[in-house]
Structures are given as structure tokens and as C-alpha cells.
Design a protein that fits this description.
Blueprint lengths: L9 H19 L7 H9 L1 H7 L5 E7 L14 E7 L1 H9 L3 E3 L3 E4 L7 H17 L5 E2 L4 H7 L8 H13 L2 H7 L2 E2 L9 E2 H6 L14 E8 L2 E8 L30 E3 L1 H13 L4 E2 L4 H9 L2 E6 L6 E7 L16 E2 L3 E7 H13 L3 E4 L1 H10 L17 H12 L14 H17 L1
Parallel strand pairs: 1-11, 5-8, 12-16
Antiparallel strand pairs: 1-2, 2-10, 3-4, 4-9, 6-7, 8-9, 12-13, 13-15, 14-15
Helix pairs in contact: 1-3, 1-4, 2-3, 5-8, 10-11, 12-13, 13-14, 14-15
């Protein structure tokens, strides 16, 4: 997955910023600033910072690697899910003067400035960026080692130490040295004056990340007078980044501090559940190819019986909301998980087979995984007939039953008879029966 395709083009950045500011003006019930200077000032005041430092750095993108018009693809892991840099966060960084380094990193304050005007511009850019990035998800490189096992958990470490570490990182940069000298007047008589760097790093009212900020982390580092910002996902509570509680949900902690991992693959219906959950939690969902629309329009009229790894006797039954026919006893298990277009539940394999059969009879598109189908067939299998006494491989009763199970399947099954019970004879007769069935 090419992560750069999810970032906005240069000509889209101004539009994204303007739309965000318009929402902020509306929320603040204030008049809309007209000039660039007025807008920059609004971005720094209380209303502006509340809007802009609430922008989550991480969004989620979805792509399909298969043609979703073909029903069989709804049984396979063919949809890619990947965290990416939020296009609005990217637009904000670029608009305020940061330079992009790769698909998730930014550089601030490159160079010392050739003259006073240039140096002043660099200082203003860094100040603006520090005042709008969400301080609750900013971390120094010292936090990375802990994050690899426990995630970026601000409640396990002193936030004031983190702020202190970041303060020194910024102060060591070219522009940061100038900003650090700017003291701001105390808000009340009980508070001493603060450095502009200190205030910028601690922006926002929330010391701890909330909402969509929980899944993000910004790693700040400095070198040779420059400040670097890297967008990462957060391993929440050391477990991973899971957007749904359903068993089998993929871990979307893919933007690690040290590497960008490959996208996660999942089934179309599960991708729909996860992306709807992401949107409900406040994340931006990026779907440039209209994958979610394709899934909704197709799946809403389908019944899909999927296999569950490690649970061969069960099936994950997905039923579209437009499927109006009765589905037998499987209907009693619905819904386990629900979206506007589908109902999902785990049911015994036999119930799933019954639901697929009834949906097919009613004219709905319905498909069942081969492994689930095999389990159903094995439950109904009968022992093969007794052999002719002259047959070279005469089978005992339990062996005839095992061969019957073998011949009932399309894929096969794990035959694990104890030593001395004739596994070889069972397998040979099963292969013989399969070969005869194929030739017929």
C-alpha cells in the first residue's frame, strides 16, 4: 500500500485548512477572520488552539485487493486496512511551514536563517506548530523503548517529565532557543510566568489523550538545530490498536516508531465493521476507491458463512439487512455485531449451512466456506460399505467410518488415529474412493 496516495495534494491543503477553520468559527460562534494575519492569530488564541490541537494525527485507509463483485471474495481476507497520517494534520503541518520527510515525518526550523526576517519567520513557524499539535500525545525518544512493550501510556510515567524532555528538545533547536526566551504573563497571580515553549508543549486542557488521540503518538526529536516530528500509532495498554471488540479483529498498530509495518488484511464484512467503529470513535476514514460503498451495496443482499480458524465446528454468519427470508435456527443468534447494512454472529456450522440453503432457495446470493461445508458433510457422513472378503484392504468398522468421513469432504480432514489402528489403510482407501469419484 502506497501511503503517500492518502496525503492531500498541495492544491488541496488550503481547502482543508479553510474548512477546519470554518467549523471552528462556527463552534466558537465568532466572526470569521478575513485576512491571513487574523486567521493566524485566531489559530493561536483559545478557540483556535482547541479546534486545531484536537485534530488526530492518525487516520485509517481502506483498499481492496480483489473484485468485490465476485461473491467468493467475501470469504477471504482481501481488504487492506492501514493507519496513515491524517490528511488534515498533514495539511496543518505544511501550512504552518513544516517540511515533509517521508510519509509520516516532518522537519521544523531548517537552518539558522540568513537574516533577521528569515529567523523571525522560522521562530513564528515553530511556535505556531507547537501550539497546534496535541500536547497529550507528544513524546520524547526516551519513551519509545517503553512503548514497544506497554504502549505510550502517559499514566505510567510523569507527564511533567515528558513535557520537560520535550522542552529541552525544542530549546536545543535554532528557533527554540529564541522561543524559550519569550516569557508569557501569568494568567492569575498564583501562577508564575511561563516560557512560550512550555506553554506550547502543554497545549490543550487534557493531560491524557482522549477519543481518537488515544491511538496516536508524536515522537519529537532534535538534531543540528532542527526539530523532527514523527507520526506513530499507539499500542494501547500494551495490547495493540484494536478498533472493535470482536474476536479476530486485526491489530492496526502499524506505524511503529522504528518501522512501518505492512497493512492488515481482513474480510470485507469485518473491514466494514472496523471502519464504522473508527468513524464512531472520531477517526478520519479514507476510502478513495469507494471500497466501503461496494461492500455495503453487495453485502446488504448476501448471506455469507465464513470459517473460524481454530473452531471448525462453528461459523461466522454474516447476513445483509436486505435479506428478508427466514434463516432457520441461525436467526436466533443474530445480531452478534450489527452495522446499518449487516448482522453478524457466531453459530454452529450446521446452522450456518441451513441459513445459506434457505437464502439460496429464496433467491438471495449466499456463499459458504469450503471448510464449513466439509464439517457439515462430515456430520452427515456414513461409513463406507463393508468390503468383499477377497479385497486386499479389508477394513474394520471404525476404519470404514473414518473413510466415510474422508469421502464426505472436499478438502479433507486431519485423521489422527492412535498407533496401530490402521491410518495407512484408511488413507489409501480414502484416496482410492476420491480417485474413483473423480473418474466418474
Amino acid at each position: 500500500m502506497d501511503l503517500s496516495r492518502f496525503l492531500p495534494e498541495d492544491d488541496q491543503i488550503d481547502t482543508l485548512i479553510e474548512e477546519t477553520l470554518d467549523k471552528g468559527f462556527e463552534a466558537a460562534k465568532g466572526s470569521r477572520p478575513n485576512s491571513d494575519d487574523q486567521r493566524r492569530q485566531w489559530m493561536r488564541d483559545e478557540n483556535g488552539s482547541h479546534v486545531l490541537n484536537a485534530i488526530p494525527p492518525v487516520a485509517f485507509a481502506i483498499q481492496s485487493s480483489a473484485n468485490l463483485e465476485q461473491p467468493e471474495h467475501f470469504l477471504s481476507d482481501c481488504v487492506q486496512l492501514m493507519p496513515v497520517v491524517n490528511p488534515l494534520f498533514h495539511a496543518l503541518m505544511i501550512k504552518l511551514g513544516a517540511k515533509q520527510n517521508g510519509v509520516r515525518s516532518y522537519e521544523v526550523s531548517a537552518g539558522k536563517g540568513k537574516n533577521a526576517a528569515e529567523r523571525d519567520r522560522i521562530i513564528k513557524e515553530m511556535t505556531a506548530i507547537l501550539e497546534v499539535i496535541p500536547g497529550s500525545v507528544c513524546y520524547s525518544p526516551e519513551c519509545v523503548e517503553q512503548a514497544s512493550s506497554k504502549g505510550f501510556q502517559s499514566w505510567n510515567i510523569s507527564r511533567y517529565k515528558v513535557f520537560g524532555d520535550i522542552y529541552h528538545l525544542i530549546r536545543d533547536t535554532t528557533a527554540g532557543k529564541k522561543i524559550a526566551k519569550q516569557r508569557l504573563s501569568p494568567i492569575t497571580g498564583d501562577h508564575p510566568s511561563q516560557s512560550r515553549v512550555s506553554l506550547a508543549v502543554q497545549n490543550g486542557d487534557d493531560v491524557f489523550a482522549i477519543g481518537p488521540l488515544v491511538g496516536a503518538a508524536l515522537i519529537l526529536s532534535s538534531a543540528k538545530g532542527r526539530l523532527f516530528i514523527k507520526v506513530c500509532t499507539n499500542r494501547v495498554e500494551g495490547k495493540g490498536l484494536f478498533l472493535s471488540d470482536e474476536s479476530g479483529t486485526p491489530d492496526l498498530d502499524r506505524l511503529r516508531p522504528g518501522a512501518v509495518l505492512d497493512p492488515q488484511l481482513t474480510t470485507p464484512d469485518r473491514a466494514l465493521l472496523i471502519m464504522e467503529a473508527a468513524a464512531q470513535q472520531g477517526y478520519t476514514v479514507i476510502d478513495p476507491d469507494g471500497v466501503l460503498f461496494s461492500i455495503r451495496s453487495k453485502l446488504g443482499k448476501m448471506v455469507v458463512a465464513q470459517r473460524i480458524p481454530g473452531a471448525p465446528g462453528q461459523s461466522r454468519l454474516v447476513v445483509g439487512q436486505k435479506v428478508s427470508c427466514k434463516l432457520g435456527s441461525a436467526a436466533d443468534r443474530l445480531p452478534g455485531q450489527r452495522t446499518m447494512m449487516v448482522r453478524v454472529a457466531v453459530v454452529p456450522a450446521g446452522m450456518a449451512g441451513q441459513a445459506v440453503e434457505m437464502a439460496n432457495k429464496a433467491g438471495h446470493a449466499a456463499i459458504i466456506d469450503h471448510q464449513v461445508k466439509d464439517v457439515i458433510a462430515m456430520a452427515e457422513a456414513k461409513p463406507v460399505p463393508a468390503d468383499n472378503p477377497s479385497h486386499e484392504l479389508r477394513l474394520r468398522d471404525y476404519q470404514r467410518q473414518a473413510v466415510g468421513l474422508h469421502l464426505a469432504t472436499d478438502i479433507g480432514y486431519l485423521q489422527a488415529c492412535s498407533v496401530g489402528l490402521g491410518k495407512t489403510a484408511i488413507v489409501l482407501r480414502g484416496m482410492q474412493g476420491w480417485a474413483k469419484r473423480k473418474s466418474d
